[in-house]
Amino acid sequence: MRANTWAGRNKVEVRDVPDPKILNGRDVIVRITSTAICGSDLHLVDGYVPTMQDGDVLGHEFMGEVVEVGPDVAPDWLHVGDRVVVPFPISCGACAACSAELYSCCENSNPNAGIAEKMFGHPLAGIFGYSHLTGGFAGGQAQYARVPFADVGPLKIESDLTDEQVLFLSDILPTGYMGAEMCDIQPSDVVAVWGAGPVGQFAMDSARVLGAARVIAIDKEPYRLQMAEQAGHIPVNFDEVDVRSRLLELTGGRGPDKCIDAVGLEATHGSAHVAAYDRIKQAVRSETERPHALRQAIMSCRSGGVVSVVGVYGGLLDKFPAGAWMNRSLTLRTGQCHVQRYMKPLLERIERGEIDPTRIITHTLPLDEAPHGYEIFKNKQENCEKVVLKP
Ligand code: NAD
Ligand code: ZN
Ligand code: ZN
Asked: Is 200 in the pocket of ligand 1 (CB under 6 A)?
């Protein structure tokens, strides 16, 4: 089959690779109809995650048709021909974490858990297409994928919604939603979102759906801010104004009630990535890697507010503003998204027309053009917000 693979730092390549096979009784094989490129893929491609190997199949946002079902998948659960969206965390459904609906912390899904333990001092769950640190599972930017624990993860789509309407249930819609949900939004709340990428856009829409009075979008890309503005959010360009001052201005001097970091490792600062690569190998994060979206969020949030972090971080974080966090009684919440928790309720919101996930799609390309998709998404060319690939 054809698959988009990692070919060294800052390089992806579509190659012929072996078709996936059922390896475990609870696996299914999915023929992929749509898959997407995510900001998290940029961390991998840029070398932020040092456990990528040449030829690793990328991609953790995908959906398609079940073409083969393992013998231990319950017969009333999935069948050949079913249309499914696959959540990015691989979760067993039975461990203590899964039982508590902390699916992205599954204790049984990463056969390489020792690598993360050694690098970060804590284990990580399995994730599709996310390097050997998270299990070495082949990803979904491909024609087919093996989906483990198929009786836990995939969501069957039985209505006639298009791929574009449901694909993002695999990751970024639940992630943006979880970012907003962790804020415990009250009707008078002003919510500020750092990052107007795909995750940030869905955090903004979710904040509104959850009742926020006003939502502020912070980024530096004019076209991304414009996209947020068109959806009814208030744009703030951090290249043009001092973010904290502008936020105080917009909130009567108190700061936003809730702040969401949808930036993380700063996928856009390419040179910092390369310079940081060797240090990251030792799992050390320093000031020069500039986690400034998070720092700004903590420094801007009003007393007693919530800072919700869905941007991805790894390893250690230096220069954390512990003083502002402590003295202003802030609550800090975070996590890789527990996607399985949100798929059904968000599908219902899509069906009711409360959220339109298609609004962020700017590019639809054949799988073979994945390298171009990565290029324009990473470098913010052609006003690219979200690329959907068609294998
Ligand atoms: P993206 O790279 O398209 O978007 C990031 C945006 O942040 C860009 O538009 C960039 O211009 C902006 N930005 C950079 N520095 C900023 C700053 N200091 N202040 C404000 N904005 C800034 O990526 P995306 O797909 O939207 O993903 C965003 C983040 O969410 C990434 O870190 C990604 O890994 C993470 N993510 C987390 C989860 C999860 O489960 N928690 C899931 C998916 C993605
Ligand atoms: Zn993603
Ligand atoms: Zn589990």
From this structure: yes
